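Page 37, continued from 36.
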């Protein structure tokens, strides 16, 4: 039997996904460490190896069970204009952010990405403009705004999740470089390791149903709460 060739993304959709994953996107992702600063100070995250393990665990235990499944479910909901489904997913994200910093991050990045999308040239489309107004009324969290932006491409849901996860990985690698601290070569090795783990995390996220999503990461929540009063810090969370 001949092997079926995978369907390639159009250049426009590929560029859009790369754009959404870019740290240069003006949504403030670079300003958050998600508790990594406190992990360096109080949880022994002091070497390249430990930082790599920490971020790998966060990818598998947090993103793959929470944000990524939300995005996987929100993209088809946006494409189908299922407003009730979108609102339910957005409410879940808000209700499961365990600290004020994590919630503030989700809300700020959600608003900023929606502002970017509103001013993007593709927002002139009437359907997109309607979705943006719907999203603004929520108010949106970052996973929901990302799903809206990704839904405007022709990319598959797994491809969109890969873009989201890689954007997160690159931001967290940069946070590790500054916080541990580490050199650029060490940061690239961490990013390569996370990159190898992302496809498995995406596969796991695609298999998560509504009643299986979870945001139970107690150590991450504790460190995020402690970060609010950390004496010296570089990042907003």
């Amino acid at each position: 039997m001949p092997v079926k060739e995978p369907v390639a993304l159009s250049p426009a959709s590929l560029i859009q996904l790369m754009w959404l994953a870019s740290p240069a996107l003006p949504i403030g992702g670079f300003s958050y460490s998600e508790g990594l600063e406190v992990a360096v100070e109080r949880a022994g995250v002091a070497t390249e190896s430990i930082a790599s393990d920490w971020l790998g665990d966060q990818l598998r235990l947090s993103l793959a069970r929470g944000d990524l499944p939300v995005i996987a479910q929100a993209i088809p909901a946006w494409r189908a204009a299922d407003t009730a489904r979108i609102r339910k997913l957005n409410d879940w994200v808000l209700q499961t952010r365990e600290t004020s910093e994590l919630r503030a991050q989700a809300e700020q990045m959600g608003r900023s990405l929606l502002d970017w999308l509103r001013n993007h040239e593709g927002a002139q489309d009437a359907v997109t403009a309607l979705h943006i107004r719907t999203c603004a009324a929520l108010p949106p969290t970052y996973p929901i705004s990302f799903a809206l932006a990704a839904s405007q491409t022709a990319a598959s849901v797994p491809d969109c999740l890969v873009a989201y996860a890689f954007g997160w990985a690159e931001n967290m690698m940069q946070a590790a470089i500054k916080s541990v601290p580490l050199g650029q070569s060490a940061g690239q090795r961490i990013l390569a390791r996370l990159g190898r783990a992302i496809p498995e995390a995406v596969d796991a996220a695609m298999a998560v149903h509504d009643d299986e999503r979870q945001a139970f990461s107690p150590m991450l929540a504790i460190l995020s709460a402690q970060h609010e009063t950390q004496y010296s810090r570089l990042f907003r969370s």
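DSSP finds eleven helices and no strands in the chain. Flag for discussion at group meeting. Residues 157-179 form the longest helix (23 residues).
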